[in-house]
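Worked problem 6 (solution included).
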Amino acid sequence: MTGPDIPTTATDGQSESLVSALANLSHAAEAYGRTWRVRMVAVLHLMTSFTLAPLYLLPGLVLVLSATWIGLTLILPWLPNPPSVGPVPVFPWAPLAVLLAVTASPLARLACRVQHGRLGAVFGIVESQPPDPLPSNGVPRRVVGFLFGREAWTRVGRSVVAGVHALLSGALVVALVVGGGAGAAGALLGVMYALVLGSPGEVAGLLGLVVAGPLAALAGLSLAPYLVATEVMLHRALHLDAPEVRVIRRLMHVQDSRLRMVDAAEAERRRIERDLHDGAQQRLLALSMTLTRTRTQLARDPDRALELITEAQRESKEVMEELRQVARGLHPRVLTDHGLPSALPVAAGRSPVPVEVDVELEERPSHRAEGVAYYVVCEALTNVAKHASAERVAVRARRVAALAARGGFLLRVTVADDGSGGADPEGGSGLYGLWDRVDAVDGTLTVHSPAGGGTTLTADIPWEA
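Solution. The predicted structure is:
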């Protein structure tokens, strides 16, 4: 007796269809979950912006208050009976209003830095060109420009605009999501309370809130990513230049840097030529004449020839030392063979100022990065000896992680002294040359040099430059 035929092919096809349907459902659920996670993150981001909105609006509020205060100070003395605060009239407090206005610029810079930092940390949007770390104006002009310059007022305006957007978008999302959810929960409790008390007439209105609350929350969750996108667009327009502006600025920067590097190379070539002509060339000529005299005296007066050979040997050593002095600052062999841990102490040993060297590098960076770092340290030590009047110098080299948006590692070289400070790039200290050398490998150079407080020079060089 034979049993019925089993449709194995049809069964396998049904299993495959079921597995495919389950896989599609799983992918759809995963995509759905990702979508809602993105929306929740967007809501949290907007709530953070809403929390920061008072900081963004504070510079504008400070300016409005100080302007109102100053205006009242100018108007009140002309009134018949000017009001007063306690025993002191209002208008003598005008300096406080001016001082309040001065704080608007630092507050705006802080707010813009927070906005700029959030662009980089959250969305990975950073400036392609770092600002010039070596301003050429004097300290008073820098202070006035920092507090009342065009950039200061621009930052106040940017901060206020960003604050208005953060306040409106955050308030809208908070009202929809938090208010809708809380309203629905409260209405649901109210329905339960009304049913317990036996008041069915109030249930209808509460049920409307129970339905409208989740709908409002869903609307807020759906709207949140678009509000975040508008915030990103606004902050990019406020804090980042347009691509064509960045290209033009970069071209102008490259042109200026190239001209300075050409001038520096020409000056270095003339120095080497002058040193060779005045020093080594003259000594080689004297050595040649001494050897000629030795040849003529060798047969007639061997003792005199021996003295001349001794003199020639001494002159050859002096020529070698002279050539070492000429080549000082060029790429030394110890750097090529052993790297910065061995080369920097050699450079520090030539400095007339005591130098403490601290180098901790687990591995060697690229040869180009090592050369730039060595040049920065040598030039910085030369500047300290010439201009700083320092008693000690500290040189430090470390491998540090770059910003998350940039990635990779940096070779950070720091040269700090306890000298007079006040380093000025226009004073012939070679800071522009150092900056050009570091910037040529996409590094950054910062100089902190308050008057009387010493100078700290920090170079961040890409590890694989």
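Discussion: The CA atoms of residues 34 and 421 lie 55 Å apart.
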